[in-house]
Write a structure and sequence with these properties.
This protein has two helices and three strands. By secondary structure, it is α+β, with helices and mostly antiparallel strands. The protein has a single domain, classed as Hypothetical protein (Metal Transport, Frataxin, Chain A, 2-Layer Sandwich), CATH 3.30.920.30. A three-stranded antiparallel β-sheet has the order 1-2-3. The longest helix has 11 residues. The chain is globular and about 30 Å long.
């Protein structure tokens, strides 16, 4: 997420709150720091960040 311009706001346990501000607005999400992320959770993160699957794949 750092590569996409997101910065860490805070961390509590195994979850990190991240934020990005750009011309289209402010994007915020909470990312779990687990080895595997559930499909639905990943879908919600993509919706909350405005990223597509392809954009996320390029960042990994």
């Amino acid at each position: 997420m750092d590569k996409a311009g997101f910065t860490i706001l805070r961390q509590k346990g195994s979850h990190v709150s991240m934020e990005k501000t750009d011309a289209t607005g402010r994007w915020r999400t909470v990312v779990p720091l687990h080895r595997e992320i559930a499909r639905g959770t990943l879908h919600d993160i993509l919706k909350q960040t405005g990223l597509t699957r392809e954009e996320l794949s390029k960042l990994l």
